């Protein structure tokens, strides 16, 4: 089944931005690790937060859903352990990585699995670092990949090393498990730290839960003391990656649009989408009293040559490729090597698919890994393309936006996957009269390329 999406001539209206997936997942996890009752308001309900809830219930958390909030009774570190724990992470990197680390402290073995995309993602730096801390973990099928069995009962503590430019989730996973270690845990990071705002989110969550964690100014050394998680009440902010699809569409059409559910105080790296639109000549204004963001696109916006360093906003990189297709000039994105290790190699996916539509976009490689692109935009394209989502929800959503201003309808695989992070995606775009229809037939070229290997280790203190 594929989705046919008709182009639109205008994009106006009032749109609701969903709550943050990473913040909801962290809040559920921290509440599970704490003793007592926590309340999470404005939580996001989507498949990947469900995956986190299911994993946390497997550890013994009680999670009750109410309209607009969750009540969670945590484990206080006394995890359910019947000797038969299997944790299914589906496609969620965060669930797999945090659960693999936490399984080290359960007395009995735990199997942690994932879907086909997850089993292709790089896990070896995390597994090696956990082994350095005393964990006993084995890959079940292919060394360095999911699924794994963590034999449990061992997280001694000490020093471990991780690369900074593969995934921040390795650091996040060890930070969440570290308070349960027998001795303090130290993490040393090699090279520049990418996706730093996600580590900041983790540190914020841990500190709010009373965990004793320190970090060096350059974010390359962390130390966690054995400590107890305390319960907390958390309000989740808006999700700027999800917002980026609506905001990018807003930038492609002149006129005024209003976004609700936006407090404008989040420190998510992806909130960079708002200043990026400003640089492209789009006017934005937060009204913090009314929780809205108003976007005004003048007819002469999106002109010039732009360079964006995406080191701290990896998830909006596919959205930027979609936007760049319409820049009157060039849009160059650098610093995005972690996107190669996401569900798909995201820049290669966007380059491959946008090229099918006639977009002049070229990838950029650094040390053998695709880490950026340059796109020379045009005002429109003929359309009539069969787009593949490469097994990745964010590729589908970005291509959907890219197709809106083409001259004829396009066909898409993977539309069902909006349920992973943004279930109301079609509802929101329908407000701007985007017409979609399901079309029978096999997906075009649905398979993403095979497993991605961890790059050779960079020495600590190295480049
Ligand atoms: O910790 C998290 O919640 C995430 C961290 C980032 O991962 P990487 O550091 O692998 O980019 C981000 O891209 C991912 O979508 C969510
Ligand atoms: C890749 C994503 O998340 P994760 O890394 O947790 O799978 C994502 O939300 O796009």
UniProtKB/TrEMBL annotation:
3-phosphoshikimate binds at residues 21, 26, 167-169, 195, 342. It is found in: Cytoplasm. The keyword Ribonucleoprotein does not apply. One of its GO terms (biological process) is chorismate biosynthetic process. Phosphoenolpyruvate binds at residues 21, 93, 121, 169, 346, 394. InterPro entries: Enolpyruvate_Tfrase_dom, Enolpyruvate_Tfrase_sf, EPSP_synthase, RNA3'P_cycl/enolpyr_Trfase_a/b. Its EC number is 2.5.1.19. Residues 453-463 have a biased composition (Low complexity). It holds the Pfam family EPSP_synthase. Its main location: cytoplasm. CDD domains: EPSP_synthase (cd01556). The keyword Ligase does not apply. Monomer. This is 3-phosphoshikimate 1-carboxyvinyltransferase.
């Amino acid at each position: 089944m594929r989705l046919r999406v008709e182009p639109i001539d205008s994009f106006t209206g009032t749109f609701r931005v969903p709550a943050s997936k990473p913040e909801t997942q962290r809040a559920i996890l921290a509440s599970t690790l704490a003793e007592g009752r926590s309340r999470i308001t404005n939580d996001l309900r989507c498949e990947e937060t469900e995956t986190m809830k299911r994993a946390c219930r497997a550890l013994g958390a009680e999670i009750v859903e109410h309209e607009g909030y969750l009540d969670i009774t945590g484990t206080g570190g006394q995890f359910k352990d019947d000797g038969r724990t299997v944790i299914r992470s589906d496609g969620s990197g965060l669930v797999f990585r945090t659960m693999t680390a936490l399984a080290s402290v359960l007395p009995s073995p735990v199997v942690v699995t994932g879907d086909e995309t997850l089993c292709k993602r790089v896990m070896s730096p995390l597994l090696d670092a956990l082994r350095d801390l005393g964990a006993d973990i084995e890959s079940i099928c292919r060394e360095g990949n999911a699924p794994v069995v963590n034999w449990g009962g061992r997280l001694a503590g000490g020093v471990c090393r991780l690369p900074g430019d593969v995934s921040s989730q390795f650091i996040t996973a060890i930070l969440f498990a570290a308070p349960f270690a027998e001795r303090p845990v130290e993490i040393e990071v090699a090279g520049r730290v990418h996706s730093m705002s996600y580590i900041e989110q983790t540190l914020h969550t841990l500190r709010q839960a009373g965990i004793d964690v320190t970090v060096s100014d350059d974010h390359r050394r962390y130390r966690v003391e054995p400590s107890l998680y305390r319960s907390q009440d958390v309000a989740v902010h808006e999700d700027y990656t999800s917002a980026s699809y609506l905001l990018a569409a807003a930038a492609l059409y002149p006129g005024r649009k209003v976004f609700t559910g936006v407090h404008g105080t989040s420190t998510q790296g992806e909130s960079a989408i708002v200043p990026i639109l400003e640089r492209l000549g789009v006017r934005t204004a937060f009204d913090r009293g009314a929780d809205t963001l108003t976007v005004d696109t003048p007819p002469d916006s999106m002109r010039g040559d732009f360079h964006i360093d995406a080191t701290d906003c990896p998830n909006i990189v596919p959205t930027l490729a979609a936007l760049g297709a319409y820049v009157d000039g060039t849009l160059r994105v650098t610093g995005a090597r972690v996107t190669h290790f996401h569900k798909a190699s995201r820049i290669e996916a966007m380059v491959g698919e946008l090229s099918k539509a006639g977009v002049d976009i070229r990838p950029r490689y650094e040390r053998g890994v695709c880490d950026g692109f340059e796109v020379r935009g045009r005002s429109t394209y003929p359309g009539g393309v069969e787009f593949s989502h490469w097994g990745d929800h964010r590729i589908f959503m970005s291509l959907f936006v890219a197709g809106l201003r083409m001259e004829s309808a396009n066909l898409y695989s993977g539309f069902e996957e909006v349920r992973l992070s943004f279930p109301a995606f079609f509802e929101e775009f329908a407000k701007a009269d985007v017409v979609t229809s399901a079309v029978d037939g096999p997906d075009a070229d649905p398979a993403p390329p095979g497993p991605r290997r961890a790059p050779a280790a960079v020495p600590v203190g190295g480049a």
